[in-house]
Each structure stands twice: as structure tokens, then as C-alpha cells.
Amino acid sequence: MPENTCSGLSGDEARQRLAQYGPNVVTEEKPQNWLLFLHKFWAPVPWMLECTLILEAILGKWPEAIIITLLLIFNGALGFSQERKAQSALVLLKERLRIQARACRDGQWQSLSAADLVPGDLVHVRVGDIVPADLHLSDGSILVDQSALTGESMPVECAAGDTLYSASVVRRGEASGKVTATGARSYFGKTAELVRGAGAKSHLEELVLSIVRYLVIMDVVLVAAILIYAAAKHISLAEILPFALILLVASVPVALPATFTLATAIASLHLVHRGVLVTRLAAVEDAAAMSDLCSDKTG
């Protein structure tokens, strides 16, 4: 345990640097709820219903158009509500797991929220601690687990003069050091930004796109055959066009998007009872498509 007195930042210096560098957190973009809700209507699954809605309106079939509109709203509202519940639970977990740090302020060691740390703070870490920021060690010797950051399975020895990365876990010993980087500027923050920028199409999205692709090909072939037949029989375009539009509408599985959303929502509720928090409904289908899951220490 460090001595009671120490030479760290004063409260005024810490407040100035906090205003300059910002809190020691990796901020997440949180769009407005109404934008998240509208985003539910911009994807391959809703596009099918929206195209069908336009065709129904062109044909003047308003009862069918109203039903499709209700399906669209149901599909979007269900997916939005389930994902919002999962995100709220995730925020609550983060609040409960808030990291505390031992920092020197005004000549005394204090317990502070890790979010209040600033570059230049003198921080002390010991066994079991999660390193709250990037540190340049000034004294002490510790064994630290950096597997969550580097993938290295074996703990690393760190002594005075070494750099200690945020989000590492102290396995043995204790040491003190100056904060060199916080928030998005830290090693963990840069890693989190890279992970956030990465992405790939979900298996569910690829499946729906393949279904839509085959339906479009089939529709184009059928409509082309109808138009060729009409030209051969000298049938006017005004007479054959409504029939072609009806054919397009009939080939779209109107209930498919709502069925997908409802099925994944029910599956996510079952997973919640087993201790699994689903933040995206599409992830349920992705997990179901796996036959084997390999995970190392980092995972």
C-alpha cells in the first residue's frame, strides 16, 4: 500500500486537465431513439414490404396496403423494443461494473472513479485491479495479464520504466505510475475504436438477400414472358400491366419479415432466461448457424 502522502496533481490541475482531455471513458455514439426506429425500415427485409406497399397503392388495393403498413410498423416496433431492452440492461451492467482507481490528489491517496483520471495523475495498482488508464510505471513490480488487449496468453512482468496499458489485469504485486493517456487516446480506447469500425453482413441478412435475389429473377422472367405473350397476341400494355403488377405483389412473401423478427425476438427472450444478453436480434440467427465455437483465453 502506498504512503499516506504523495506528490500528485492538485484538485484544480485535475479539473483543468479533465476539461482539456475529457473524461477517461470510451464514448459511444448514441443516436436518437427516433433515428434508431426509422433505421428498422432501411434494410433488405423492410424493403420487400415497402416495394409491395408501393405496388399495392399503384393498383389501388388500399386494404392490402394498410395491412402491409401495419406489418411494417409491427416489424420495426418489435425489433426496436427488444434491442432497446437489451441495451438498457447492458447500460445497467456497465454502471454496476464501474471501475474505481487509487489516485494521488492534493497530496493524499484517494479512491476515484476511473472516468475522472487525467494525464499526469499518479495512480497505484495492486493485485486484482483493472488498470484504469495507460500508465508509465515509476516504482514497483507487477505481473499483468494483457490477454484482452494483445491476445498474449501468458502474463507479462512490468517494472519501473515500463508502460502499463488500460484494461489489463494485475495478477501479482503492486506498483505506481503516471497516467500517460486516457479515454480514446489510450491503447484500449484505440482498440475499441477499431472494433467499432469493423463489421460484416449477418447470416440472416445474407439469407434474406439471397431470397430477394431469387424472387427478383423469377419476377423478371415471368413479367418478360407476359409482355412477350401480350406482344404476340396484340394485347395493349394498359390491359397487361395490372396483371404484371399483381404477379409481382403475389411473389413477395409479405409475412416473411414479421415472421423473422418475431422468431428472433422469442429466441432472445429464451436466451435472456439462460443468462445471455442479445443486443441485436440478427445475432440470434448468427449464433444458431454455428456448429462449433472455438474460444481462447482472450475470447
Mind explaining what this structure looks like?
The structure is a single chain. The chain is α+β, with helices and mostly antiparallel strands and about 300 residues long. The chain is elongated. The model has no long low-confidence stretch (mean pLDDT about 80). A hairpin with a 2-residue loop joins strand 1 and strand 2 (about 110-115). The two termini are about 30 Å apart. The longest helix has about 35 residues, at about 60-95. It folds into 2 domains: about 10-30 and about 100-195, Calcium-transporting ATPase, cytoplasmic transduction domain A (Distorted Sandwich); about 35-95 and about 200-290, Up-down Bundle (Calcium-transporting ATPase, transmembrane domain). The protein contains 10 helices and 7 strands.
Summarize the structure.
This protein has 10 helices and 7 strands. The chain is an alpha+beta fold and 299 residues long. Strands 1, 2, 3, 4, 5, 6 and 7 form a 7-stranded antiparallel sheet that branches.
Count structural domains: 2
Largest beta-sheet details: 7 strands, antiparallel
CATH topology of the largest domain: the name is Calcium-transporting ATPase, transmembrane domain
Average of the residue pLDDT scores: 79
CATH class of the largest domain: Mainly Alpha
Order of helices and strands: HHHHEEEEHEEEHHHHH
CATH architecture of the largest domain: Up-down Bundle
The gross shape turns out to be: elongated
- Portion in beta strands: 15-25%
Low-confidence stretches: none
Q: In total, how many beta strands?
A: 7
The radius of gyration computed from the alpha-carbon positions, rounded to a whole number of angstroms, is 29 Å
Distance between the termini: 32 Å
> Looking at this structure, what is the CATH superfamily of the largest domain?
Calcium-transporting ATPase, transmembrane domain
Tally of helical segments:
10
Percent helix: 40-55%
Q: What class do helices, strands and sheet pairing give?
A: alpha+beta
